[in-house]
Specification:
The chain has 379 residues and is of the alpha+beta class. It has helices spanning 7-24, 28-34, 39-47, 66-79, 81-101, 104-115, 230-266, 278-306, 312-337, 347-355, 365-377, and strands at residues 120-123, 139-142, 146-157, 164-170, 180-186, 192-197, 208-219, 223-224, 268-269, 272-273. Strand 2 (139-142) and strand 3 (146-157) form a beta hairpin. The protein is globular and about 80 Å long. The model has no long low-confidence stretch (mean pLDDT 96).
C-alpha cells in the first residue's frame, strides 16, 4: 500500500496552500465580519486553474481527477470555510451533475464558464424536505417549448452569487422519487428570484438563500438526462460531494489544531508553556490522531471515486467521521485557548462556528449512519 501523495498531488497542494496563505488567510475574518463574498479572490482561483481542475479537459476543464479537487477544498477550508463551500458547490456537486449526466451541448456550454470562475448553485433542499429528497414539492410541467417550474428551494449555497445552477423538480409529488427530474437553469431566467437570505452562525461570506420559481419557463435543452432520472442523479452527485465536505471538515479541523498547538507552545501557565501540561498534551494527541484518521478515510474515498469504484459507504464514513472529528477538535481548540477562544478576535472561535454545519449539509450524521448500516446489511 502506498499512502503518499503523488508528485502531482504534492505540488498541487503546495501551490494551493501558498495561495491560501497569501490571499485567503489575511482576509478571511474581514469577509466574515462584513458578510462579503470575495469575487476577486475567486477570480484568482479560476486563473490558477482551481475552478476547472477536475472538469473534463475536452470541454475546457483541467482534466485531473477528483482527488485534486478535494485537496483544493481542504486547503481553501483551512483559510475560509465559507469560500470552500462556495467552491465545492460550484465546481463540485453542481458540475458533477452536468459532466456525468449532461448532454454534449450542456458540457461544452457550462464547463468553460465554471472553469472561468462563474459560480453555480445546487437547488434540491426545500422547507418540507431535506434528508428525504423524495418529499420535494417544486413542480415542473411540460410546455410547447420546454418546461415551466414553480416552487421554492431553501438553504441554497451560492444563491446570491451564482449565474446558473441545477434544479430538481417533480412532475407530481405523489410519484415521490419516480417523478423527479433535473434541469440546468440560468439565474437570469424570468420567473426565478432570490428570496430570504439566511443569517447563519458561520460561513458568512458564502450566501445561503431561498430560490423562488414562479412560472419560470426554461427550454427543453435544460433537461439533464431523461425525465424521472432526477432522484438517481441527485444521490450519485451527493455521494461524491460528501467527500468534498469531509475534505472541508478536515481543512477546518487542521486549522483549529494548528492554532491550538501554536498557542499551547507560546502560552505560559504555572511557570511553563501550556503545552507541557499533560492534560493539554493529551488533548493535542487526541486531536492529531483524529486528524490522521479523518485524512485516511477522506482520501481513501477520493481514491475509490477516481478509480470508478462504488464509494457510497466510504463517502458516508469519511463525511461522518471527518465532520464529527472536526467538531471535537474545534471544541478542544477553544478549550485550550480558554477565554480567548470564546471571543470573535480568535480564529478558533470562527472555526468552531464554521465547522458545525459540516455535520448537517450533504446529509446529516444520522443519514450517513443509515447509509453505512445499509451497506453493512446489504454489501
Amino acid at each position: 500500500m502506498d499512502f503518499a501523495d503523488s508528485e502531482q498531488e504534492r505540488l498541487f497542494r503546495a501551490a494551493v496552500r501558498e495561495f491560501v496563505e497569501s490571499e485567503v488567510v489575511p482576509n478571511a475574518s474581514r469577509w466574515e465580519d462584513t458578510h462579503t463574498f470575495p469575487y476577486e479572490t475567486y477570480r484568482q482561483m479560476a486563473e490558477l486553474g482551481l475552478c476547472g481542475v477536475s472538469l473534463p479537459a475536452e470541454y475546457g476543464g483541467g482534466g485531473a481527477g477528483k482527488t485534486l479537487f478535494y485537496i483544493a477544498t481542504e486547503e481553501l477550508a483551512h483559510g475560509s470555510a465559507g469560500l470552500s463551500t462556495a467552491y465545492l458547490v460550484a465546481c463540485g456537486i453542481s458540475m458533477d451533475v452536468i459532466c456525468v449526466n449532461g448532454t454534449e451541448d450542456q458540457r461544452h456550454h457550462y464547463v468553460p464558464r465554471c472553469s472561468a470562475g462563474e459560480l453555480a448553485f445546487f437547488a434540491l433542499t426545500e422547507a418540507g424536505g431535506g434528508s428525504d429528497v423524495a418529499l420535494l414539492q417544486t413542480r415542473y410541467r411540460r410546455s410547447n417549448n420546454g418546461f415551466v417550474l414553480d416552487g421554492v428551494k431553501t438553504f441554497i449555497s451560492n444563491g446570491e452569487e451564482a449565474s446558473f445552477g441545477i434544479v430538481f423538480a417533480t412532475m407530481d409529488p405523489s410519484l415521490r422519487h419516480k417523478g423527479i427530474s433535473a434541469f440546468v437553469v440560468e439565474k437570469s431566467v424570468p420567473g426565478l428570484s432570490v428570496g430570504k437570505k439566511e443569517n447563519k452562525s458561520g460561513q458568512h461570506c458564502s450566501s445561503t438563500t431561498e430560490l423562488i420559481f414562479q412560472e419560470c419557463k426554461i427550454p427543453r435543452s435544460a433537461l439533464i438526462g431523461e425525465e424521472s432520472q432526477g432522484f438517481k442523479i441527485a444521490l450519485e452527485s451527493i455521494t461524491r460531494s460528501r467527500v468534498s465536505v469531509a475534505a472541508q471538515a478536515l481543512g477546518i479541523a487542521t486549522a483549529a489544531y494548528t492554532e491550538a498547538l501554536n498557542y499551547a507552545t507560546a502560552r505560559q501557565a504555572f511557570g511553563k508553556p501550556l503545552g507541557q501540561l499533560q492534560a493539554i498534551q493529551f488533548m493535542l494527541a487526541d486531536m492529531a490522531t483524529q486528524l490522521e484518521v479523518a485524512r485516511l478515510l477522506t482520501y481513501r474515498a477520493a481514491w475509490s471515486i477516481d478509480h470508478n469504484r462504488t464509494a457510497v459507504s466510504q463517502a458516508a464514513m469519511a463525511k461522518l467521521y471527518a465532520s464529527e472529528a472536526a467538531g471535537r477538535i474545534c471544541h478542544d481548540a477553544v478549550q485550550i485557548f480558554g477565554g480567548y477562544g470564546y471571543v470573535r478576535e480568535s480564529p478558533v472561535e470562527r472555526f468552531w462556528r464554521d465547522q458545525r454545519v459540516t455535520e448537517i449539509y450533504e446529509g446529516t450524521s444520522e443519514m450517513q449512519r443509515l447509509a453505512i448500516a445499509r451497506h453493512i446489511f446489504n454489501p
